[in-house]
Amino acid sequence: MERVLEQKFTIEYQYNVFFTKGLFSLGNNLFKNFLTVHSNPGFKQKILFVIDEGFMDAHPNLAEQIRNYFMESEDFILASEPLVIPGGEICKNDPTCLDNIIQAVDQYGIDRHSYIVGIGGGAILDLVGFAATISHRGIKHIRIPTTVLSQNDSGVGVKNSVNFKGKKNFLGTFAPPKAVFNDFEFLETLDERSWIAGVSEAIKVALIKDLSFYEWIENNAEKIKERNSSEMEDLIFRCADKHLEHIRNGDPFELGSSRPLDFGHWSAHKLEQMTDFEVLHGEAVSIGISIDVLYSYLIGNITREEAFRVVELMNKLGLPIYHPILDTEEARFILLSGLLDFQEHLGGKLTIVLLEKLGVGKDYHHLDYLLVLKTLDLLKNFCQDQNPVYEAS
Amino acid sequence: MERVLEQKFTIEYQYNVFFTKGLFSLGNNLFKNFLTVHSNPGFKQKILFVIDEGFMDAHPNLAEQIRNYFMESEDFILASEPLVIPGGEICKNDPTCLDNIIQAVDQYGIDRHSYIVGIGGGAILDLVGFAATISHRGIKHIRIPTTVLSQNDSGVGVKNSVNFKGKKNFLGTFAPPKAVFNDFEFLETLDERSWIAGVSEAIKVALIKDLSFYEWIENNAEKIKERNSSEMEDLIFRCADKHLEHIRNGDPFELGSSRPLDFGHWSAHKLEQMTDFEVLHGEAVSIGISIDVLYSYLIGNITREEAFRVVELMNKLGLPIYHPILDTEEARFILLSGLLDFQEHLGGKLTIVLLEKLGVGKDYHHLDYLLVLKTLDLLKNFCQDQNPVYEAS
Ligand SMILES: NC(=O)c1ccc[n+]([C@@H]2O[C@H](COP(=O)([O-])OP(=O)(O)OC[C@H]3O[C@@H](n4cnc5c(N)ncnc54)[C@H](O)[C@@H]3O)[C@@H](O)[C@H]2O)c1
Ligand SMILES: NC(=O)c1ccc[n+]([C@@H]2O[C@H](COP(=O)([O-])OP(=O)(O)OC[C@H]3O[C@@H](n4cnc5c(N)ncnc54)[C@H](O)[C@@H]3O)[C@@H](O)[C@H]2O)c1
Ligand SMILES: [Zn+2]
Ligand SMILES: [Zn+2]
């Protein structure tokens, strides 16, 4: 005798991405108001801040500012002094960083009605999100991204992760934050490389989804390079918007194989690993986009002019489009193995997005190794002709 | 200038709980059919089995049976020999068990289109579910529960977890399985204690939600105690059904504070810890229910007769209703601290479900310590009068 019980339910996810300046200055009530709206009357909710050490060093008054900001709060208390954790890939590689956050959850009695707030680059946010979503089966987390990349891409999405024995993002969860606060002033202390690196994610999303956004980036490239330009603010806003739109209309928790937002990423992930993360994520994506754009030209989807128009844009912005590590044959084989890793992480059929035309992405299930190698030669030649910023630095 | 982007989407979760016998016998196509329906044409999906060592010892032919079962499968391949992991709480306590599963995911290239299948008691299923849901941000997992408790309660739900430094279920996820297969024959090798322990979860759900189910259990208590009775099959089916119904109509991922399915559990969790898990989960729940039922009597919600009717039922089934470790004052204080742990894990206000009347639960936000102590005295006296099974063993 066989019987079956059927189970079915839906869960609704909702969060806002706020754009502001001076988030923790006393006159700015955005963050406080958010917390108050979500407070639990008669019960003081705890907040644990976890802060990127690199960001903290550049903003030495931050801890005090936060303390003052919460001084007179009725509904919330700081669980402890902020936990300061080394920023960058190291915090996703070193299991003690994850452990330290989980320990703090235990030590300070952070519960499912408390908040863990991550402040920092994409790496810290990935780590804090993961720690929060697995502690007590999910503590609410808030993201405060402090890099261009995390404000316009990684910080506004639903993915959390750490590396496992060097394997990038091997462990993680899909779990949206409760809110994201983007403070444009936090970006002032970024060095030139990080400032510009995040722009490649905007080019990425524009190329596969929005030709007019792409053209806007081209037309404003000079101004975007400038620090504190309102064009950079607009770029971050539009890019974040495109990412959010894609997530909600697509496949938020990536149950299928198609991941258009990973345009340019199959080689980028590999390149980060190969250079021991000396190449920044956004820089690797810039090279990855260059490869995939040229590949799209080589298979006849776009013209040579269109392909090099994209490469030129990246070059003009100061983004790298090639890396000398790719000069050797061995390195090129390792790069190609990124296609296999990509398939494995996604599972199922290999699915790579390429350009159908400028502004429109399209899934492909096979890449020709020889054509990929050819894109590398084209990019290398381009660099030799142009003597681009990256190789000169 | 402040701007905001709003994000909102829903995710639908769906899975079936199948009841069968001889799941891996060659004539039984239930499991194969499930996999085929969910297969990816032209692509061989991998399956990794993780099996409870205690269950494996009792079913020494299982690995071979599974090998034969998949021998001629077109769409699926076994990723490797089954991973065998010690069953019981040890596998949730020892981080190397989690690590071994994650290592296997890496080593055998288990991807998001593969399946990890856990076979075993609630502890193994909690562990395997957790490992699967954090690997590659979520590999599909299938549960094959092999204890009464896991077939009627833990295995059919949406929670996964491991312990962290001895803290029960400190790390975990809410992530439903893709399917659950309950094979009644797998229960044949359970010892007497485990066989009956899981019945307390049925009494729990009946007491708070379904008086007629409770009365059915009373009327069939003798037969339920018997091995391989069809009454036990019915009890498991009805109990699983009630749990599934509660999950889908309630708050599947427990975003609020109310957790009626945790009736009797605040003290049970503590008691398991205090006895170093010598007391089984179901046994601890039986004691926990006894405490909360007497408490419901002491605050006037049910009569003394009703309260002791429940205690008698448990006693008659051979379930413990008290534990001698609770004789000392120190131990009683530790037990009471379970209320604080419970609040912390849930977060926010303490919320404990008690009986409003038989068959109906009700949330309370405060428990009177002295009244809890009184329930312990009443239960101890009851045991001394009755010389119940538990103390005699
Ligand atoms: N979750 C996702 O969807 C997603 C998407 C893309 C990338 N990522 C991840 O994001 C990470 C990269 O993030 P990132 O590019 O933001 O860099 P990062 O987090 O690696 O930080 C780079 C460095 O900048 C420092 N820093 C951060 N903010 C600063 C500031 N305002 N001023 C001065 N220094 C500052 C950090 O301390 C660190 O040393 C990678 O781990 C990548 O995998 C995640
Ligand atoms: N996820 C949830 O919602 C949830 C709910 C309740 C309980 N739980 C968890 O479930 C666990 C308890 O599970 P359990 O009671 O199923 O026991 P268990 O998993 O602890 O297993 C008990 C013992 O029985 C052995 N065993 C399992 N099946 C057997 C069989 N058929 N024949 C012989 N031996 C067998 C195991 O090897 C183990 O030694 C606890 O960790 C508890 O926290 C989880
Ligand atoms: Zn990226
Ligand atoms: Zn239970």
UniProtKB/TrEMBL annotation, chains A, B:
<keyword id="KW-0456">Lyase</keyword>
<dbReference type="Pfam" id="PF01761">
    <property type="entry name" value="DHQ_synthase"/>
</dbReference>
<keyword id="KW-0028">Amino-acid biosynthesis</keyword>
<dbReference type="InterPro" id="IPR056179">
    <property type="entry name" value="DHQS_C"/>
</dbReference>
<keyword id="KW-0170">Cobalt</keyword>
<keyword id="KW-0057">Aromatic amino acid biosynthesis</keyword>
<dbReference type="InterPro" id="IPR030963">
    <property type="entry name" value="DHQ_synth_fam"/>
</dbReference>
<dbReference type="InterPro" id="IPR050071">
    <property type="entry name" value="Dehydroquinate_synthase"/>
</dbReference>
<feature type="domain" description="3-dehydroquinate synthase C-terminal">
    <location>
        <begin position="198"/>
        <end position="331"/>
    </location>
</feature>
<dbReference type="Pfam" id="PF24621">
    <property type="entry name" value="DHQS_C"/>
</dbReference>
<feature type="domain" description="3-dehydroquinate synthase N-terminal">
    <location>
        <begin position="84"/>
        <end position="195"/>
    </location>
</feature>
<protein>
    <submittedName>
        <fullName>3-dehydroquinate synthase</fullName>
        <ecNumber>4.2.3.4</ecNumber>
    </submittedName>
</protein>
<dbReference type="InterPro" id="IPR030960">
    <property type="entry name" value="DHQS/DOIS_N"/>
</dbReference>
<keyword id="KW-0520">NAD</keyword>
<keyword id="KW-0479">Metal-binding</keyword>
<dbReference type="GO" id="GO:0003856">
    <property type="term" value="F:3-dehydroquinate synthase activity"/>
</dbReference>
